[in-house]
Amino acid sequence: MLYEQRIRRTAGIILAALALLVGSLAVTLVAPGIARADTAAERAQVQRQRAAVASEIDTLRATNAQVEAALSALNANVATQTAALRDAERRSAEADAALARATELVVAKQAEIAALDEAVKELAVETYIRPPSEASLVDSLESDTIGEAELKRSLLEAKSSSQLDSLDQLARAREDLEIAEAAAEDAAAAAERQQAAVDARLDEVTVARDQQAKVVAEVETRLDRQLAEAAFLEGRDRELSAKLQAEQAALAKQLAAQRAAAAAASARSAGPVTISITGSGSIVSVRGIRIHQSIADNLAGLLSAAESDGISLSGYGYRDSQRQVELRRQNCGSSNYAIYQMSPSQCSPPTARPGQSNHERGLAVDFTYQGSTIRSRSSPAFQWLRANAARYGFYNLPSEPWHWSVNGD
Q1: Cβ proximity of 395 and 364 under 8 Å
Q2: Of the candidates 338, 354, 370, which is a domain's last residue?
Q3: What is residue 369's three-state secondary structure?
Q4: What's the domain range around 341?
């Protein structure tokens, strides 16, 4: 009977210990929960893969739609990884709470054992001083009545039973302590696993934000160049300028929505951006196109070759950055930071920073054909340039059929 009671009591302690650990389990034992965890993990993995692809986009040469899709993928990945981090932090907090409860149970059992130890010691001292012996039988025989003898025998038996109960309680408490200590060890291991999961998720969030920040910075550069192009074209091709400005305004709006999530912020500087090649001393005119003297012969050769093939090209090369400074002061602010460093998407309307275009170095040409800017890749002028311009050191920026420079930017 006593053995069966111990079995039932031990089973109860084990169940209680398992209940303490429920909150700290990394994966629930309920099938729907497993399905939800697997689905979340798969979704996070898909988002990571999409973000990895998106982070490799060539923002200068991609279409607006491709850039917007890349930004959306990166933003979705940041959101997914952040949500996974929050979930891992919640599970870690639950595991810590389970560990605290398990530790409290261990402390309580230790206190109970200490109290029982003291009680057993007191009984041992009392037994030593007044040991139950054959004297109880003598006392019974010397009693005046049978009733008195039975009373004394009952008292002795009660004392013996109390001693046995105390020893049994102590043994049970020690068994319970072993179970509680094992549960506490399991809870500690679960808490450690959950903290490791939090650390891993934090690393994923950091990677996601770094990827996003990298592409955001590159798109800002794209904005600089295309907004500068739109500003330059405003007085020459208003329709094309308006189209460029509308496209870049949409892109700037998307960037503004994501900037707060970027892990890296652009450093602020009190001084202006240094323009490496400017000034009339380095700029010469080739058939009316102002260009840096280092590529003047190249441009002259290109124009002559095109003309020989029946393609009469003209265009615009070097442009002074002062106009861009004026626009920045008007649209962004009057401080050095606002004029030279602030993101173009933070201006209203979005405005390119001075010194960011190859035109301001005299290293790019916007070609015209038959008096109009080359807008289409099907244009005979574009077809000729695509086939021949590289021989003269000029390369196209794919998003702008008219724009050719020494490095394709």
Answers
A1: no
A2: 354
A3: strand
A4: 322-354
Exposure of 392 in the CB half-sphere (CA atoms within 13 A): 25
Same domain as 333, residue 309: no
Q: Are 216 and 337 members of one domain?
A: no
Token digits of residue 373 = 């800017």
- Say whether 228 sits in a helix, a strand or coil: helix
On average, the pLDDT of the chain sits at: 76
Summarize the confidence of residues 52-75 as an average pLDDT: 81
What are the distances in angstroms from CA 269 to CA 81, 275, 335, 341?
A: 33, 15, 11, 7
The verdict on residue 12 lying in a domain is yes
- Condensed to tens digits (0 to 9), the pLDDT of residues 88-136 reads 889 888 988 988 898 888 888 888 888 877 877 776 676 667 665 544 4
- Give 315-355 pLDDT, tens digit per residue: 989 888 887 888 889 889 989 998 888 888 788 888 888 88
What DSSP character marks residue 259? Answer: G
Contacts 24+ apart (CB under 8 A), 61-65: 61/397, 61/398, 61/399, 61/408, 62/399, 63/399, 64/247, 64/250, 64/251, 64/399
**How many domains are contained in the chain?**
3
